[in-house]
Design a protein that fits this description.
Largest interface: A-B, 44 and 44 residues
Distance between the termini of chain A: 44 Å
Oligomer: homodimer
Radius of gyration of chain A: 27 Å
Number of strands of chain A: 32
Largest sheet of chain A: 11 strands, antiparallel
Low-confidence stretches of chain A: none
Strand content of chain A: 15-25%
Structural class of chain A: alpha+beta
């Protein structure tokens, strides 16, 4: 059971609490209480073990393929979270005895996870246990744990704690047995290599044991077993004494930027790891935590979004989203993308999808442009794989992988899914082949980043190349329909994945057109040296002609007599059914109880926003009336069975003045992970949804948008919100935006003047100036 | 807690009972309640899951290496034992609620394992659960489970059961993700291949659900997930009703004899598997069990050893040993050996050691000679690997692997063990290199088999070749000591593994001499055609000369002035310490608390019987006085930290007339797995110890022995035993031996007359005749 209102004082609306323990729902809080720093992601499995727990520790970029038949995935590192606490001979488990009180709280402000348990053993001994842990935001290699155990009676405690390499990715073991070594009689080291990609992961762990401030004198016993290296420490604890255990860990990998492309790095990595652990061990939990807390404090000073709402859940939900957005990505690393589950679970194998560019990137583009730049540079660095994919499919240019992992992996969408259990034939996974809109999604995000940041340098070095080469893909990908004398995109999957193999998906065609149009503009405007560079690479003249030719004759679906833009050819011929039972269900995918995939293809039903994403991204192409008509039409037909759906509906509803509907969808988005459904997050949090929550607040209610190279801010708050304050970095100037029911004010903390459009009024904001505009 | 006295009526002294559940000791009964048929071994993990459980399913011969760094091992197949029983929303666990009564019983007579639990849930609902399972002895592919659940209140039950491929060997995953298919809407199939050896394991599973005899009408839902394929069945059970669940499984592998060396067998294996499961499913648990029970009945009719003892534990212990001896080996398969843990655990990786020939084989040689023949044929079939090992080490002939796995694997002892955690250097495992006595152990077992069975055919085809080629190894292995003008074997490990790198280990030298002497006798007596065959292979004349030359000058250690045969050169120079604390300890290996390996080398202490094994195997070479002197000397210095130790001391003590000491050692042997130490068997049962228990009874107290080609039977029962009856197959004639305090009688159930020596009296026993001799 979750509680959202238990943060007090400075932590009011910063605390997510699990207020009762229920071992049926371990996955929920393991995921949503995940801690990390973009380099490390550590799922919040408890110290003691429970059936159906999932212990996950990921390090960004360490991809490995279990065997030739499985696609590469982010491997689960040897676990550091487990600690066996054996009390009077019995391993501590909250299921063996009586829980007197229980509270587990993730503090979003400090990044610390804390659990307090009052417990009575079957022998009627009463214990107070307190567990704290964090993944450092100030030193990305460090994870620390602190445990306190106090008993009202004398007890014998044995602690077993260390590094456990018996974990896997749901049974697929990515690591060879690690090398283990005890250093200075204190530091446990395990160095494990992935089976195929040969990535080295080196973990160091050190423990300290104190009773009421006094170090425990008896030494521990180091235990080596297959894939395990741990210490065993036995302690007699007298009634009323408190045992303090600190476990400090350091994690390094050969995929770290420091060792990238260097040879024979193991000795260096182990040396660096030992230095890290030695220093960290001397500092101890409190000092390490203080450093990390300060790093979080700095982050929040720049990033917090303050909402005054009659329901403080809204404020918490925003912070929850921002917390996860800031731990899911290694901010300075242009070799890694954002995983669909962040670093919080095995779901989607650590792969990156369009989720990044369309749902998550706007947050970074508008608030931490250097992160957006790193993420787009990652896409630039994966261009070779995108070109290989295009080439292998008979196209030109860059066809981005639907699922992307390590730099040179190219397309990593599994080709075959589980077998159809009835026919026995493996089911083809089509997304990697025909869900092609990701190429224009990336181009779109590049342009958006440029518009917001003004980062010409990036465009010269990387951005233009992405936009031009994806346009070249779209030009070669188009099929000419002789009969209708037009180009088409047939046999694709649009955003709505309930519909495979559709022709002229509106989203796909319009976004491809945008991509090609932007490429033509860019080519025309290129300075001579850049033109020469690209000309050498692409034959720009021919490319321009090809693109222009396709663009001129590209079929862009038009609204029917009712003003509805068809999602794809023949959409209106599909039958309609009563979707209300599925729309009302608190669970997703309930339509599968009544219809299978083949049947879904013939029904006007969408898994997620499809046409509406188009109205949102290319908003200037469509009139408000048309948007409204289509919004109603498609909302009726959308089940929101994808976590990428509700935020789009929320933003669009807000655009259309439907603030209360927008608010409902905002809450729906916020509830995907943070809400009361205890089974929603087992495989990890929903990264895109975190970006979506930000979009609901800032794009939707904040009315922030880039249009024709201008920054528009037109806040329109929902009933429950009295005010909304957020920060934006625009053209490298830090702006603070404050909105209330009456209007908006923008303060420029940068040095340079910026131009913004407030409720349609173009205004200059000088350095340290605040401009306010009353809402009409 | 185990009980041994709860078998009633026809099952008196056939039942081993776990009378209370304690989740700290899961490994004990998982191992000792292991079920199997030599083809399959299935550890007795419970249906519901507990922390620290080990689910193991092994199929003989399916060896695989996880990666190039790990030696090959018997892989853990996808699990069939797990069944999630969800009652009113909570997974059933005996730790979540109150156990009202508990009993788990392995019936050694029928091979069935039964668990009965009375249970009260936290909601105060009272349940009676009954679980039965067996691995069929009549159809080696079949495993069946039967579960009954009765509630005193209405309950909602959901059952999740199927095939779970998330298991591994302590983290090393040997299987690629399996192909899953649902056949006829009923049969689950998973076909999994090992990662390197490409062995296919196909498992079929079918379930049936009945309430009080009436089939449950609602269908199940098949669920496919990563490495999992199971069904989910939800049922409303009214108060007083009983739910019956049957789970029938069929297991096949491409290493089965039927598919051996055939190409593209997957379709055939899957077809055969489906036929098996279809037939078995139709028969149902009761009929399948009845067939298996009859097979066990036949086995026991021939194999039971009946002891009248004042402590009926002795009778149970013998049956327990015979039960495991008969499920640890695939009796008709000459491609597989016996694993050190049988098929009951991951310990020793499924490898075969000298345990087979010296400790286990005598049982089969004397009671099921066709099994002994298959096991020795396995050694014959591994000769290429033995020759390769000799060649790689610079020797001639056949140097048998210390650890042996699949036919062409050769030596599979890991070269390197865990790192010394202090120096960080991996510790070399020397046994594979220098524990060389296994070659003569195998030769010895071949000759013993010949003496008992009279199987000339085997000797012509296989036996002679083993003895000659191992003798050739010993001749080439010997080192000439110029100073002493003699051959020596230096730098070896004898049976006592606390002593590495010793010179002239008495056991090694004497057994090598025996091996060479036997080879010379054989070569001299070979018929011309065989002589020619071996001459082509070996150059017999040169071989004979080489062997004879070494044998003549081979140093055989002699007793010192006190009549003590030194275990190896310089043994008497080692220091003596007080070993009594370690000898008194109920745990093994306690000397390591005070001494490390280097220190142990310099102390007169043995892990296990060493010289005494020599006195036992080559008993005719040594006088009774000398044996007695040495017995006392070495018993004082032996810690019995190996499960291969106590039975030798027992037999030797019995030989020397120390019946009560022999009895204590017999009980010690019996207790290794069956006894009250709940941590002794976590990694699996001790195969050699099972053979040792038989040896204590039949060799020791039964006084059975082959000497100079004659079968001696001189029973000498311990105080507590009134009688002992066992069967022997001698020269293909079935003999029944009955002994009591007064003497012995032998009945010949065969057709041919046999000659036996009873208390030194040579007697002929004609067909269907009984000969009795009174003990002097």
């Amino acid at each position: 059971m979750l509680r959202y209102d238990t943060g007090k004082g400075e932590y009011k609306d910063w605390i997510v609490e699990e207020a009762a323990f229920d071992s049926r729902y371990l996955g929920k809080c393991e995921s949503i209480f995940c801690q990390g720093n973009g380099y490390i992601g550590q799922r919040a499995a408890l110290e003691e073990s429970y059936i159906n727990e999932t212990r996950n520790l990921f390090v960004t970029g360490t991809f490995n393929s279990f065997d030739g038949d499985e696609v590469t995935e982010l491997p689960n590192l040897p676990d550091l979270t487990a600690m066996r606490i054996i009390i009077d001979g019995y391993p501590f488990s909250m299921e063996r005895g009586k829980i007197l009180n229980y509270s587990r709280r993730l503090n979003l402000k400090t990044g610390e996870l804390e659990r307090n348990v009052g417990f009575e053993t079957l022998d009627k001994k009463q214990l107070e246990l307190s567990f704290r842990r964090f993944v450092s935001l100030s030193d990305e290699h460090i994870i620390a744990f602190r445990t306190e155990i106090k008993a009202q009676q004398d007890i014998q405690i044995t602690i077993e704690s260390g590094i456990d390499g018996r974990v896997s990715n749901t049974g697929s073991q990515h690591f060879k047995e690690g090398e283990k070594r005890l250093l200075d009689g204190r530091y446990l080291r395990m160095s494990s290599r992935t089976t195929n990609s040969n990535v080295l992961c080196t973990q160091h762990v050190a423990h300290s044991f104190k009773i009421d401030g006094k170090a425990v004198s008896a030494g521990f016993v180091p235990v080596i077993d297959r894939r395990q290296f741990y210490i065993r420490q036995s302690i007699s604890l007298d009634a009323g004494e408190t045992l303090f255990i600190e476990k400090i860990c350091a994690v390094h990998s050969s995929r770290d930027m420091a060792y990238y492309k260097k040879q024979d790095t193991q000795a260096q990595i182990e040396k660096d790891g030992l230095e890290t652990i030695e220093k960290a061990y001397k500092m101890g939990y409190k000092l390490l935590f203080e450093q990390s807390r300060i790093a979080w404090q700095k982050l929040w000073e720049a990033q917090d979004i303050y909402i005054e709402s009659t329901d403080s859940y809204d404020r918490l939900a925003l912070r929850f989203a921002l917390y996860h957005l800031n731990i899911m990505v290694k901010k300075d690393d242009d070799r890694v993308g954002i995983a669909a589950k962040g670093l919080s679970g095995e779901g989607y194998k650590g792969h990156s999808f369009w989720d990044t560019e369309i749902f998550i990137l706007p947050y970074f583009t508008f608030t931490q442009p250097q992160v957006a730049k790193a993420l787009l540079s990652y896409r630039y660095n994966t261009l070779p794989g995108a070109r290989r994919k295009a080439h292998e499919n008979g196209y030109k240019g860059a066809m981005y992988p639907w699922e992307s992992a390590w730099l040179d992996d190219g397309e990593v969408t599994p080709l075959w899914g589980a077998a159809d259990i009835k026919t026995g034939l493996p089911m083809k996974i089509w997304t990697g082949l025909i869900e092609q809109h990701i190429s224009s999604d990336i181009a779109f995000a590049v342009w958006q980043y440029y518009m917001v940041s003004g980062d010409k340098n990036f465009m010269h070095n990387k951005g233009y190349e992405i936009i031009i080469d994806t346009a070249r893909f779209w030009a070669s990908r188009a099929e000419f329909n002789e009969e209708k004398q037009r180009y088409e995109y047939n046999g694709v999957i649009g955003p709505d994945e309930y519909k495979e193999h559709v022709n002229n998906n509106a989203y796909t065609n319009y976004m491809a057109a945008w991509n090609m149009k932007k490429a033509l503009e860019i080519i025309k405007s290129l300075e001579p040296d850049l033109y020469d560079k690209f000309n050498n690479q692409f034959d720009l003249e021919a490319s321009y002609r090809d693109i222009e030719n396709v663009l001129k004759k590209l079929y862009l679906p038009k609204p029917d007599q009712n003003g509805i833009l068809p999602q794809f050819d023949g959409y209106f011929d599909l039958k309609t059914i009563d979707l209300s039972p599925y729309k009302k269900s608190p669970d997703v995918g309930t339509i599968y109880n009544d219809y299978n995939n083949d049947e879904l293809r013939n029904i006007q039903v969408s898994k997620q926003a499809d046409v509406l994403v188009l109205f949102f991204l290319l908003e200037e192409l469509f009139s408000s009336d048309m948007k409204k008509t289509n919004y109603t039409f498609y909302e009726d037909r959308t089940l929101h069975d994808s976590s990428l759906s509700k935020s789009t509906h929320s933003v669009l509803a807000a655009d259309l003045g439907l603030q209360e509907i927008a608010y409902e969808f905002f809450r729906g988005s916020a509830n995907i992970d943070l809400g009361p459904n205890m089974k929603s997050s087992d495989m990890g949090i929903h990264s895109a949804s975190m970006g979506g929550i930000w979009q609901c607040a800032v794009y939707g209610f904040g009315g922030l948008r880039m249009k024709k190279g201008e920054l528009h801010i037109s806040p329109r708050l929902p009933e429950k919100w009295d005010s909304l304050a957020f920060n934006v970095t625009y053209k490298q100037q830090a702006l603070k935006v404050k909105a209330d029911k009456n209007g908006v004010s923008v303060t420029n903390f940068g040095e340079n003047v910026v131009e913004v459009v407030l409720y349609g009024e173009k205004r200059e904001v000088k350095s340290l100036q605040t401009i306010s505009v009353i809402k009409q």
